[in-house]
Design goal:
two-stranded antiparallel sheet, 254 residues, alpha+beta, six-stranded antiparallel sheet
């Protein structure tokens, strides 16, 4: 990679969630960020131009392969991109996932709660509970915004003002902060779907297709635009436990 190529890569990284240049050499550009613990390594392809992008293994790589399957090589453990625009898209999505997986929300939550409590002179159990709940809701929502790319998990609507963070297993029923803030314990939904999901009037089956409670009449379905074809844009294996709980404990099927 020449100086210009490295400069373009570093610029793309800075603009898409990777502001720290760890290494920049002819054969490797390594990028990181203060906002998450992940790191990516970018190397030139041996033939055909473009670059290979090595991302962290585990959930981040697993999630990326859903949308970038044809670009992934199991042999190299990297994604092949042909130009700077493709690289920018991949870096942006990797950064979004790195800020929410494997359970970054729980880490950020603990830090944010500590900061907020330090600002309060008189601490009571009630005040601390309110702080934890407020910070938890904000942290969970941001994690879902990152994971779902800022768009509704069903409709793809990308207006933040109308999107809500919906728990599958509600906050009060979770056994730990890690469970409450697990990005797989919920979905980013538009306001109407959030209200229905929160009250158990809709849920999703094991393939992600919507299930609608029988008490919602055909006219109400039409008004609410609840078509039988609605489905989650994707469903990861880690969603399954929480969705099972929602179907069994919260969904009002009858």
């Amino acid at each position: 990679m020449n100086t210009l190529e490295r400069a373009l890569i570093e610029k793309a990284g800075c603009e898409h969630g990777w502001e720290n240049v760890v290494r920049s050499e002819d054969t490797l550009v390594a990028l990181a960020s203060a906002r998450h613990p992940a790191r990516v390594n970018i190397t030139p392809q041996l033939s055909g131009g473009g670059w290979l992008v090595e991302v962290p293994p585990g959930l981040i790589r697993q999630e990326l392969t859903r949308d970038w399957q044809t670009a992934f090589s199991a042999g190299t453990g990297a994604f092949a991109v042909q130009d700077i625009s493709q690289l920018a898209l991949l870096l942006r999505r990797t950064a979004e996932l790195a800020q929410s997986l494997p359970n970054q929300a729980a880490v950020k939550y603990k830090e944010a709660v500590a900061r907020e409590l330090d600002k309060i002179k008189v601490k009571t159990t009630e005040v601390e509970c309110l702080v934890r709940q407020r910070v938890g809701q904000d942290t969970f929502r941001q994690a879902l915004m990152d994971y779902w790319g800022g768009a509704c998990a069903v409709t793809g609507v990308d207006m933040p003002e109308v999107l809500r963070a919906s728990h599958a297993k509600p906050w009060a029923y979770c056994e730990s902060d890690e469970e409450r803030l697990d990005v797989f314990n919920g979905f980013l939904l538009s306001a109407n779907l959030d209200a229905l999901f929160d009250r158990g009037l809709i849920t999703f089956d094991a393939s992600g297709r919507i299930i609608i409670a029988a008490r919602i009449t055909p006219q109400q379905r039409l008004t609410l635009q609840l078509g039988d074809g609605l489905a989650l844009r994707w469903l990861a294996p880690s969603h399954e436990t929480y969705l099972d709980w929602h179907r069994e404990k919260l969904f009002a099927g009858a």
